[in-house]
Design brief:
The chain is α+β, with helices and mostly antiparallel strands. The chain is built from two helices and seven strands, in the order E-H-H-E-E-E-E-E-E.
Length: 106
């Protein structure tokens, strides 16, 4: 997941497929070394592993956020996160599902 604090950078990132993001993210880190333009969260699961649903929260300073999932199946595998700040992410066999959460989980 990538939370972006810079509007111009967000416009670039939202156009990328997951494959493009994973190919270009190292260069993005070099282009924005201060860590103030975007924040990343990185999880890795092996094929066949059933990861538990995750709950993530996006910092209110972000202009937008995107979840990229590096699937082998065709598709963009990108999910733009809307105005909600908390969501549940379920990683399926071929794509991801993101659902907003209204209240903190207990």
């Amino acid at each position: 997941m990538v939370a972006v604090q810079d509007a111009k950078l967000f416009d670039q990132i939202i156009k990328l497929t997951a494959k493009q993001w994973y190919e270009q993210r190292e260069q993005m880190r070099r282009d924005f070394p201060s860590g103030t333009a975007f924040t990343e969260w990185d999880w890795e699961f092996v094929p066949g592993q059933a990861p538990p649903p995750m709950v993530v929260e996006v910092d209110g300073k972000a202009v937008g956020a995107v979840i990229f999932a590096n699937y082998r199946s065709p598709g963009d595998h990108r999910f733009r996160i809307g105005p909600q700040r908390r969501m549940r992410v379920d990683l399926g066999d071929d794509d991801l599902v993101v659902s907003p959460l209204d209240a903190p989980e207990e």
